[in-house]
Design brief:
Chain lengths: 425, 373, 300
Amino acid sequence: MKLSKFLREIRDSLGIAVWFAALLFPVVVMKVSVVSGAASVVFRWQLVPVVAVAAFVLSFVWKRAQEWSAYRSTIDKSKTPMARFRKSVGATYQKRGVKVSSIILFVLAILAYPHLLGMYHTNIMITALIYVILALGLNIVVGLGGLLNLGYAAFFAVGAYTYGLLWKYAGPMFVNAGIQTGWLFWIALPLAGIIAVLFGILLSLPVLRLKGDYLAIITLAFGEIIRMVLQNSGDLTGGAAGIGLIPRPWFFGIKLRPSGAAMYIYYITVVLVVLTIIVVRRIEDSRVGRALEAMKEDEIACEAMGIDLVRNKLVTFALGAFWAGIAGVLLAAQTTFINPDSFTLWESIMILMAVVIGGTGSIPGAIAGALLLKLLPEYFRALAQYRMLIYGVAMIVIIIFKSEGLFPRNRKKYTFQSDVSGGQR
Amino acid sequence: MKVRNVFLVALFISIMMGSYAAGQKDANVIRIGVAGAHSGDLASYGIPSVNAAKLVVEEVNSKGGINGRLVELVIVDDQCKPELATNAASKLVSEQVVAVIGHICSGATKSALGIYKDSNLVCISPSATTPMLTQSGEYPNFFRSIAPDDAQALLAVNFISKKIKAKTLAILHDKGDYGKGFADLVKEYAEKSGMKVLLFEGVNPGAPDYSAVVNKIGNVSPDCVVWGGYHPEASKLVQQMRDKGIKVPFVSDDGIKDNTFIQVAGKYAEGVYATGPMDTSKLPMAVKAIEAHKAKYGEEPGAFFKEAYAATQALLNAITKAKSTEYEAISAALRSEYVDTSLGKISFDAKGDVIGFGFSVFQVQNGAYVEMK
Amino acid sequence: MDYFLKLFLSGTAKGSIYALIALGYTMVYGIVQLINFAHGEVYMIGGFTALIVGGFLSTLGIPIYLVLLLSVLISIVFSSAYGYTIEKVAYTPLRNKPRLSALISAIGLSMILQNFVLLSQTEKYLSFPSYLPELRFLEPVREYLNSTQFIILVTTSVIMLFLTLIIKFTKLGKAMRATSQDKDMAQLLGVNINNVISATFIIGSALAAVGGVLICSYMGQINYYIGFVAGNKAFVAAVLGGIGSIPGAVLGSFILGWTESMGTGYISSDYEDAYAFIILIIILVVKPSGILGKNQKQKV
């Protein structure tokens, strides 16, 4: 880099450092405390250089990163080291032996996970996998259908409470009749899916005429209304006190201890995740999926082609809701206690973040996003109170540098290349 | 898709590798778990318990531990959220603790207790006051060093009917587990004792303005207003009530019996009544504990410090007397032994509730809480 | 009737509180079609700055009204700076990228700001000393409307008037209208949209700061989390009135305030939020772009 350019950058960065030092001065340096109605301020001067230096360094790093990002988008994608790495790995991967053995290794790793790492990590992985199902479900609505849903946690709640209420009202009957309560889980699973679908259809009714952000706000309203109803109908749903002692599924008639039950739920969850991936993949490639994508791209053209928008929207919400319902039952079985606080607006936002950060509309993206978003905070526990701050920073950094998401959707592209003779291929 | 698969596999495996916890547990150490809200908005209710447990354990270890074995604390954070509480509980179980001090919030405790019950672990909470935890009989492994909410509610109602001599009540709550639980119990006891409940409603925690609900209170003109919940809403309510000329007494639960309430509500806090754990800070053991906290942490201890101190003392005493870390032995010892603690001489009854310690009514007078006899 | 009047005034007071924040939301959305989730946090930071600066100044022994004036002005300056910085750092790089990305950036920013204040200051609720004057002439009607509520009401009306004048009669206003209609065309016609967007954020954040000071004085307390709750309600209000329209934001806020107040007063406070959402659904079903919203014609 030329010296003059370098000096100019130093000058800019100094300016930025001063700017941030001044901007953050009140909040960072002046610590306020209020005693008996009178506010007093303590000056922590030692933080001024910290902020300034950090801003200075970071602005340099930021500029470099932006330049690299801009550079990255101009180069020929097939010549980068990453592309070459991919090609070489892909080439080795093509060999049957490698493919088969890596798949076997992967499957073994998943199966052995709980045995290797114990109950604590298994529980974390179950939560993460439940999130994967949620992300895949929301991916259908947001990624395929292009409908922004800010109230997805409502369907999640519906699923969990289906199981909870089933236990609350049908449970005693089971116990009295001597039937094992472990069966309730298996009854609840499809039931929750169906009821969630009904709620999904219910949600789609008022939003049929709405577009874009207005649609989003209605979904937000829906999510909050469901949570409020759950919170306020104490007699019916337990209200804020929630429903507890929800039974875990029994293993062929044997009630398992928590560690064993955790393993059992883990395997059930893995199976469901695989199922979800398969079904969602199939939907993507089907007529339904293509209709949804058409709706996302251009509603008017869609209608002109004869696709019924009303039905499409209904289908989108219903499909999305189904997976959330299933995930809800799994959550209830895992934590054995549910209350409305687990299904707030913030939850919906988190699931949306997982989908977008992973790559809207892409299945590996949704999986990666969900795993990242759920596993990182657990493993960041060591960072204690800085955890959420770093989390937020990570989100912004990822989205700015990879705006399409970590694993963007690989849409089939048809390009025309005209050759010298003037024809089109 | 194929290369992505490989990448995902690599990601997955590396996450697993990275999280592999090699755990050779030292068998000669007694591990005790401490669980509660150590971060998030309820951290001020959970951190003092950690400090209390640390102080007690330090003292016991300095005297050679229990029967020659040193005590070690495993501290986990649940932010008072049920789903994090189950994670915290599984972590403690996998760390092979012999008992748990915690959790702090009733909801989180509920979700963790299932795991502790199945793993045969004693759990003593310094602050979870939902009655059903002990009274339902569902959790024989649960104890608490604080009286349950029904004792609080009963005390409040008795106070209102006998001292304030109110005939009609307006009851508000924050729709949360703790606040609504308290409000429900107050309503039940009030109606039983012949008072009329004119208004029973929940407000949104965190809302800036309660003038609509305050207008409603004014409209029904009760003799007394009861609040179930925490101090941020209480201070807004009191302020807006007094502003609109509603001068009737304001009674609440131990969620507001904290100096922060007086700080935030300022002059509006005068005259407010709150039920809270009995003030035992004059007892020699309590004085010693508070001094130790000030010496080590440089400030006065926060909420539930004495309760957590006592819980830890009772637990370690039970292990010592039982000469064992087995669940049955500890349980029995907790119930049969009387321990001298920062809350006085306490023990636990068959259900797990504390004997020898209860609630009192306090009033804010001249900017500080004063115990009413 | 008396009860109804009290509820009506309560609703008006509530509405003006929401309006202060909703205006900022609607302005930003009108120009860049972005739901600025971080707006609530700017409001919270405005309140904190006022508290901090006010606390410092009051220890210097200056008269109270000067403390109030200075703390409001300084917090406006700082909030505007925050708004400007936020826009440059987190939103500008994503301007031509998918809309959802900007939304995620906003959410991440919201988390960062909340935790930043939490870590730098405290997690506790702090008492917010109100330096607002007690207006004598309101003494007799104190039970209906107190001084702070009145001040908030007046401030909201003045701001709305002020903003409408700016949008309608100044060059900046014209540039803003042009940018919101069609960004590319406006650029072609010589409008510097970077400046217009920055100006919008600055104005919006300044409003949020005023809101922060006034509302925190009213509540008597402040905490790092208040931005999130207030932001959501204000956002609903803005959409209700037609997002992108300034009179719409104010109208939506008042309708929200009245609905909540009447619902609480006559039905129950348990479902306070639900009334607002139900009205929102009804209105959007009848008029899909909000009450005063512009009907976006879609071209083929």
